[in-house]
Amino acid sequence: MNERVLWKAVIMQSVDDLFHGSDQERRAAFKWLFVNNKDFRTVCDYAAIDAMCLRQKVFEKIINGE
55: which residues sit within 8 A by CB, 6+ positions away? Predict the structure, then answer.
């Protein structure tokens, strides 16, 4: 498996947890996605995803109630 695909899956799981997980999963996902931490930025780098752009898109989904 391509490593980039694996890291994208990690990010997608976190986003899924944020919108569809248990309360505990939602809190953990929100913290991981939105608290400025090195792990999140590293995973985004490995996945070739712009961390700030991802945060913006996820935040827009939250604001729009999606």
Answer: 33, 34
